[in-house]
Design brief:
globular, two-stranded antiparallel ribbon, 2 helices, nine-stranded antiparallel β-sheet, 172 residues, single chain
């Protein structure tokens, strides 16, 4: 058995649902933190009870280096400049795919896979950074149900085809 290469799990972010930025260019670690809401209690009889109340997924992109060609740049800069917290400014869509090959190979061939799309809120953590480039680190918080489907990718540009709406994915 061979291991699945990290580049097969890809993340894209869009503020308009049409123009996507593939995340992770400047980082060697990018993961969705599931943030499970669990509790384990023991009663006076010595019995242990486990309760799982769901998840509150988030993704921290703490190494994002701004690029004017990224579709998310202007929206992130707007949040930074105006300290925006309103829904119109901070609402976006996250697309997550599990592909047949690493996303970098989508320049030579169309990749396919499964994945989901989910509405999110984007919170900018700070701006500035080191001399390696202007950074706008941000955190993405899921803000609704995940829609499962299929994904195809050509030249790092994804196309999502919805399958079914998942319920109960987040711990609302």
């Amino acid at each position: 058995m061979s291991k699945i290469l990290r580049g097969c799990r890809a993340f894209w972010l869009s503020f308009d649902g049409e123009n996507w930025t593939c995340l992770g260019k400047d980082t060697d670690d990018l993961s969705i933190d599931l943030n499970p809401d669990t509790e384990q209690t023991k009663n006076v009889q010595g019995e242990t009870t486990f309760t799982h109340n769901g998840y509150s997924p988030s993704l921290s992109n703490d190494s994002y280096i701004a690029r004017t060609e990224d579709s998310i740049y202007e929206s992130l800069q707007h949040i930074v400049d105006t300290l925006a917290t309103d829904d119109e400014s901070t609402s976006a869509t996250l697309l997550v795919a599990m592909l047949t090959d690493e996303v970098k190979n989508s320049a030579a061939t169309t990749l396919s896979g499964t994945g989901f799309q989910v509405p999110v809120k984007v919170v900018v953590d700070n701006d500035g950074g080191s001399t390696s480039g202007y950074g706008i680190p941000f955190t993405i918080y899921e803000d609704g149900s995940r829609t499962q489907g299929t994904v195809s990718v050509t030249n790092k540009v994804p196309t999502f085809t919805a399958g079914t709406q998942s319920s109960g994915q987040t711990g609302d």
